Amino acid sequence: xxNRVVKNAEEAVKDITDNMTLLVxxxxxxxxxxxxxxxxxxxxxxxxxxxxxxAGVDDFGLGLLLQSKQIKKMxxxxxxxxxxxxxxxxxxxxxxxxxxxxxLATRCMAAGYGMPVIYTPAGVGTEVxxxxxxxxxxxxxxxxxxxxxxxxxxxxxxxxxxxxxSAGNLIxxxxxxxxxxxxxxxxxxxIAEVEELVELGELDPDQxxxxxxYVHRIFQGENYEKRxxxxxxxxK
Length: 236
Prior knowledge:
Number of strands: 11
CATH architecture of the largest domain: 3-Layer(aba) Sandwich
Oligomer: single chain
Helix content: 10-25%
Order of helices and strands: HEHEHEHEHEEEEEHEE
Radius of gyration: 18 Å
């Protein structure tokens, strides 16, 4: 019987070492692998390249790895909620690659599909295109320039799901699905932390978002904080 369960986050990330590239699921603070990030802070792996939609906030998510200066490069779409990120970027301590959100998602999917590159019109004629190859294609009767983007090559993907079973099958809840399924497909080794871990056969096959074939390690997380990145309330 397939069993991909490991004891905890510390065991799951034990061989994430210096200079590795990580795909990190989540959107804002929604659906982020909190336990894995905390374990990496304790482990102390340095010079990491992190691919994530965003960089967390100052005291949570990837912001914790930024505080401890364990990240050397961030590849992201949005980073506006993290003052420490801004400070490190402006001081030259942190290398940053900003890419369109759709491009980030599609480069993850390409990695999962085994496609080395994609072509996209997003970013053509902007700073995003500097140093990159472009080609002209005619599609649906329209001829325009497309930018070649490489699929991500990541050592690990770390994702968070609502439920998972011992074989690594995952179900995400609502908007926490976000980047998690495509990143789970793309890592050479994928680690999944889940809110609830069940036995094989307990999940409805029709509800599974990521099949266990993409997941190499799974564990049940704990102490999820359910933070809200920004709270806006109406004055009485």
